[in-house]
Structures are given as C-alpha cells and as structure tokens.
Amino acid sequence: MKTQIMLDLETLGTLPGSVLVAIGAVKFDGEKITDEFYVRIDAASCAKLGLQMDTETVLWWLQQADGPRLEITKPAVGLAEALYNFSAWVGDDEAEMWGNGAAFDNVLLAGAYRAAGQKPPWEFWHDRCYRTMKNLYPQVTMQREGVHHHALDDARAQARHLMAIFRRAKFAPVEQLVKTLADVSGYLSAMRTDLRKIDEHGETWALQTLRYAEGAKEYTDKAYKILDAHDELSAAGG
Ligand SMILES: [Mg+2]
Question: Are the CB atoms for 50 and 115 separated by under 8 Å?
Fold first, then answer.
C-alpha cells in the first residue's frame, strides 16, 4: 500500500489560485493515523505570490465560531516555507493524496505550489477524492472530534471516517449475501403460508418443505447478526 495522506486546507477562496491560511494533513494506513502535519500560513505572503481571496469566503469565516476563526489569525509562516515543509513531511515515497472534493483541497494546494514555483509532492494520478467515497457509503457516518474547520482536526476526522468506509467496503460481499438471503427468506415465508394450507389436507411433503423454510430463516438471522456485529465494529473503529 502506498503512503495514504488525508489533506485539509483552510483557505480564503474556493477556486484554484486561492489564498491558503492553513494546511492540515495526516498519514494513515488501513487502521490508524500514523503521522500528522499542521502549519498556519501568512495570507499576505500568498497574496504577494498572486493568490486571490474571495469576498464570500472571507464573510463565511467572519461568521464562524471564535475557535477556528481566531486560529487562522495566529502567527504563521510564509507560503514558500509552509509548502517546502509540507513536501519534506510527505517524503520521497509515492503518496496517494486524499482531499475533500475532486476540485478542492488537492487542486488549491497544487495551485499554491505553482504560484510559489515549487513542485507538488504527489503526482496528479495519485489524487484521491474523500467526498466521493463518503457519498458512496452514506450509511457509514463520521464521528467528529476536535474543532470543526481546524485543518488538522478536520484531516484527522476525515481520515478516520475514510478508514471506516474502507472496512465497510471490504464487507460489501457479505452484505450482498445477507440481502440475497433476506430475499430467499421472504420467498420461503410466502411459500410456507401456502404449504400450511396444503398441509391441512394431509400432505406430508409439505411439512418437510416447511422445515427447509425454517432453516433458511435461521441462516438469514445469523447473517444479519454478522452484519450488525460488523457495523458495531466499524462504528467503534470510525
Ligand atoms: Mg477544514
């Protein structure tokens, strides 16, 4: 498995070429977060390199809670230094970069690298979209911890959520089996009703078929229990 990185930016715009004010990121494997990165960026240093701010995003920040809003006004480093440090943290191994949206974190960060005349520390074919994954698995909910809109807290929460989605995805064939068994069970239950009617007329084969039907029901219940246990495990791990 390549190095997996979840990225979260705080920005003063939503388009490529926007000012960045913080980069939060975590490395993770299939089960846990293994490393963390956080840097606050001086907005003026971004503007000097030609990055833009948009009014709507600035107004949005003004409406946020004190915690995340004041966080982005604390002492910060220049964009070039922040990007250099991020590249050093990513390292030389190939990394898959997860962002929240196909056109957000990764694209804005790559834009900042371009503005600073530096090369992004990941290849464009290793761009990965967490927003797509969470939409494919809406049944796996995010357990939010920390401060919402603090780049590092967001990156941690998103990475944990994505790992829970991976576990769920692994379990998908079993879920399919449970659904199939549930269909079979429904069918057999209708059959059972009909067979009871026949049995009233003394047909012994009907009794035998009934026993098969009860067996199928028992296996379906077992499969449901497996699925429930997995859900509990995912929730605990997520
Ligand atoms: Mg964020």
Answer: yes
